[in-house]
Amino acid sequence: MDDWIRIQNLCKSFGTLSVIDHWSIDIKKGERLVILGPSGCGKTTFLKILAGLEKPTSGAIDHLHLRMGFVFQESRLIPWLTVKKNLLFINSEDNLKILDSLYLSGFEDYLPSQLSGGMRQRVNLARALANRPEFLLMDEAFRSLDWGVKIHIIDDINTLWRNSSFTLITVTHDPREAYMFADRVVVLSSRPARIVKIFDFARDYGADPPAETYLHFESEIMNLLSSE
After folding, report:
1. Cβ-based neighbour number of residue 109 at 10 Å
2. So what's the pLDDT on residue 117?
3. Is 16 helix (H, G, I), strand (E, B) or coil?
4. What is the pLDDT of residue 93?
5. Which pLDDT score, from 0 to 100, does residue 206 have?
6. Checking DSSP bridges between strand 68-71 and strand 135-139, what pairing results, if any?
7. In sequence order, what are the residues at sequence separation of 6 or more whose Cβ sits closer than 8 angstroms to the Cβ of residue 24?
8. Which domains does the chain carry?
């Protein structure tokens, strides 16, 4: 994989509050990168900087002007529009085929209020992916969902990722979620967030993650975070 986004000595403060403390990392084209850290440590701020919604206080992010999709923690669907109209609001009719990939066929004429939380988040994901983004940002996108629902959606995203070429950058506080998604996991300290460690996984994407490897990963994560 080629380096696609280069981040050098990135810092972000809000007034006297330091949030991001000298991050340096290269993000590779086509990888799945997970930012893992405690709540309130600056993960969402980092995504907003990547998306151009916030400016860093200092440091640099070197990347091309890439097509981006963004899935937020809370639903951003327009409540009075149907599933289909929510997608067409920012996409063309040609891009509606994404509904099939996320098992939303047959729900095109439903309003968001008629869908479960998991289905609504599938629609949010479909809207983010419909314009074929070069990289997809997800901000604790499944935090409010039951674990069983999370697993199914993560499996679907992994399938879409294998069949496409987008780079996935997601933030979470959940080691289980991070492990199911990641090629690499960037572990953060509490605020001001520093990069504590980067885990690099070599895995067979057709196989379930080995339980013993995950347990070792979770134990190390807990030790890292408790020592901060």
Report:
1. 10
2. 87
3. coil
4. 66
5. 46
6. parallel
7. 7, 8, 9, 10, 195
8. 3-66+134-226 (3.40.50.300), 77-132 (no CATH)
Extract the tokens encoding 83.
Answer: 């599933």
Closest CA to 99 of 113, 203, 115: 115
- Residues 22 and 186: their CA atoms lie apart, in Å, by 14
**Euclidean distance between CA atoms 101 and 78, whole angstroms:** 22
Determine the pLDDT at residue 202: 62
Residue (of 166, 154, 227) closest to 197 by Cα position? 227
Largest CA distance in the chain: 51
pLDDT along the chain (228 residues), means of 10: 79 93 91 89 90 90 78 88 87 72 88 92 88 88 83 86 87 87 89 90 58 77 72
Q: What is the pLDDT of residue 64?
A: 58
Give the number of other CB atoms < 10 A from CB of residue 98.
20
Model-wide pTM > 0.90: no
Residues facing residue 190 across a β-bridge? none
Give the position of tokens 């981040």: 7
Q: Is there a cis peptide before residue 210, judged by omega within 30 degrees of 0?
A: no
- d(Cα 1, Cα 167) in Å, to the nearest integer? 11
CA 39 to each of CA 36, 103, 171, 186, 192: distance values in angstroms, whole numbers, following the listed order:
9, 31, 10, 15, 12
Q: Tell me the two tokens of residue 120.
A: 């609504």
How far from chain centre, in Å, is Cα 94?
A: 25
